[in-house]
Amino acid sequence: MTRSILPAPGRTPWLIFLVVLFNSSNLFAFENLPASSGNPSFYLPSISGGIAHFMGSANCGSCHDSTTAQCRYVNSPVGCTGNGSPLAYFDNNGKDVSIREAWSATMMANSSRDPLWRAKVKSELKKHPALSAEINDTCTKCHAPMVNADAKAVSQSFNIFDTVDVNNTVLPGILSPTNSRHDLAADGVSCSLCHQVKDDPTLGTLDGSTGGYKIDMTLSGANRIMYGPYSTIFPGPMQNNAALGGALKAKPQYSAHISGSKLCGTCHDLKTPTVYENDNILTPTLESRFPEQMPYSEWVHSAYNNDLAPAGPLAKSCQQCHMSRTDGVYISTQPSGNMAALTKKNNFAIHEFVGGNKLMLDIFNTNKTQLGVLSNNFAATMAATDTMLQSAATLLNTQQSGAKGKLEFVLRVNSTTGHKLPSAYPSRRALLHVAVKNSQGNVVWESGKVNANGSVVGVDADSNPAGFEPHYDLITAPDQVQVYESIMGDNNGEVTYTLLRGHHYLKDNRLLPSGFNKATASDDVKVVGGALTDDDFVDGSDDVTYRVANLPAGSYSVQAELIYQTVAYGYAQNLFADSDISEVNDFKTMFDASGQKTQTIAQGDEILVNVQKLGDIDGDGDVDLNDVNLILAAKNTAANGSTDARDVNNDLKIDVLDSRQATLLCSRPRCAVQ
């Protein structure tokens, strides 16, 4: 089944007034002003007459956080003592694994507060005002999903940002505290959203992607089903909850789908429409849309797919990697007077939802007041993010040579990730930084040097908005940098950073997970560019050869690292050009101030190599008759690879021409032997 996103007839003209808003967006600037955090204790829909589909995360936390965790939030009242038994939510090692507290410092909890998301959506709206309805719908399915579902249940429309009507009356968007759905928006991807997603046949399919999750919006109160991973549960506290007139009642029910990757795929496979310069839609069906991010489909095409039978040794679900496990947890503080009625649960999934976006976690933590952030748990999430990043890949030196006056070595990047690396949104990149130092410790050659502002020396995209770095199998110059990334192209084949102009990828050489066959990959996850024909760019790894020529004889060391950036410099600069948008300026201020623009994923062991003089075949430090004779002894044979010292002229064969060139390089007259 396909779904069209063409604007309804007659819709476009009345949206033209939005141009006025976006040309004067500073009217609604909130720079440096405190933002509303919303009320995480909401329990009724914000519209009159609606059904209580959702509740705020604080209500869940009152039973699913430890009593101490309940008091650790930014807005916790003075003298807070928490609620329920103090035994709940500590594992066998005494670690507090409270659900809401762990979740509160994640990208999911703060999905609508994300300043990059706000800035990018506002930029897309500015460039494509006629597509406002589609943008507001698509971008809230996964960043403000409770708003999206709640509004659709009663056939109401909404906007993310403030707009003005034909009478110049300001209409508050869902990010405004005066909007009736603001609390739903502020609570992000919240508990009662994910745990109400049904085990629908579309899960894991194209129709189930791009925010295609299904929730039964006809249920309320004790009939509202909350799916969980345990079949042995004590349902009484949720079914019989009398608080707030019973508005918090729900029916807990076991379902295996809540622990499966298909659930994650509803938002982590995302396809967006492509539009021409005039805002006409080029891709009217879901199949034809641009694959903005496809981590779930990448996982399906890998050895990590555990939906296959039999599952392989690497098979793991998304949750098994992104939610660490522990044992011995009472998963509720209730019934507080009868903990014997509960049992400790093993294989408990800690709700840290850890990924690689340390940049944004740092921005959330540093700008809590401006962004309305409630969590004080970012230190733990950032530490877990470091661990995740440093387990994502390894970097090895597989061979090295210092023959013929040049340094040659091969770096192998091994991916240990269940999807492409870097994953998801096409602002992200990973790159190899390599520095060669002489015996005095001075850098004599360097590729991939990262500047403090996030730009990378030699990367085309960082100096030319229309360019990008090709994929390399061999690097011979400092301005050649191996960058693992996806580069969007528009329908004219030109580089674009505007999402709705994205038509196809001009380059996608992101590292492949183990088991990913690039020859059989679908169009949505295919390898694009030079990596497609690079024989050593395969599932799980990539080999890159570095050849540094014209080095004086001596000892050298090589240091290499794999670097990650959530926001590539070229992407950032393109966004920052929209300086008339207050949300863009907000993000720029936060981005510029952050010290987390770059993280190290992996470091290779230091390589120590002695570089021989060109023509020094026997490695004694000079060129003489002994070396010439070694060449002549192998005359008219094939060279043993590019590093064969006897192949002085680098034509991959050993002949009289090599002996003649070696004679010209002799250290003493008549090639005398010392």
TrEMBL record:
InterPro entries given in the database record: EF_Hand_1_Ca_BS, Multihaem_cyt_sf, Multiheme_Cytochr_ET
Domain of life where this protein originates: Bacteria
UniProt keyword terms in alphabetical order: Signal
Gene3D superfamilies per the UniProt record, alphabetical: Flavocytochrome C3, Chain A
Name the UniProt record assigns to this protein: Cytochrome c-552/4 domain-containing protein
Organism in which the protein naturally occurs: Methylomonas albis
